[in-house]
Amino acid sequence: MKFSPILIVAGEPNSIFFEIFVKAISSTKFNSPIILIGSKKLFNVQMKKLGFNKKFNILNRNDLEEIKLDNKFINLIDVNYNTNVAFEKISRKSNIYIENCFKIAFEILKSGISKKFINGPISKKYFLKSKFLGITEYISQKFLIKKSAMLIYNKELSVCPITTHVPIRNVSKQINQKIITEKIILINEFYKRNFKKKPKIGLLGLNPHCESIGKYKEDDRIIRPVIKKLIKKQIKISGPYPADTFFLKKNRKNFDVAVGMYHDQVLTPLKTLFEYDAINITLGLPFVRISPDHGPNEKMLGKNLSNPLSMIKAIKFLDKN
Fold this sequence. Notes:
This protein is about 40% helix and about 15% strand. By secondary structure, the protein is an alpha/beta fold. The chain has an 8-stranded mixed sheet, sandwiched between helices. Strands 7-10-8-9 form a 4-stranded parallel sheet, sandwiched between helices.
């Protein structure tokens, strides 16, 4: 096969995905063929309400190695989702449909036809049903991957949370030297492989000002020893840094990646700085998995106001790598 297509799973059917997907492919030219996995019927129902009109090239996933693809039409693997309603409230009703979309994508990825994968937003509350912390963990489990990391990538500054969708009260229980080391090494390898550089990594402390007056001194007992060990491995890392000042312009300009101990510690400042100009990359998989850095955004359904920038960035990243 001469091309390497980008696989895109549509994700939650009652989300802004189809809107931002159509805006992305209509506004930007991509060289790699794009294969969308989702419901043709649902797509047409939603696009009619939004006033969009696109033609399809319906694919059989068993014939992908035998055909040549381009992006003149939407290359679609049609997955059944029986609905005549353009937009509904998100519920468990769509779980089987989403699962079937992922299954098809995983089969294609395992076959080696493609190593480029994007998934649309998923409702953690309904689809994951507390079985997984997030889609990062869901996909990692499906491919038997034990070491993975969530990197929110922006070319100026990326961030990685050591713990992902974990309640604050459980964060200190889940950080340890082993997990921090594993994720830092994955980040370092990703930058070396994709950008031919060793990234400058800033490791944030857990407690305010990297201090604790209690007996649990995580910054001293866990984080500082990790930094010393990683420096010995020739990794460009320093810290721990207080999160309240790290993201000041004069400080953040010295780093490629900020690694924090919990989700909002690093994602809140990144989204404040770059808004939609970021993508979520799962490190550690045998392929490159990306999702646009936003959720289903149920409140924006059908309004034709959603920003496609993160989707464009996700496709562009895979298009040139």
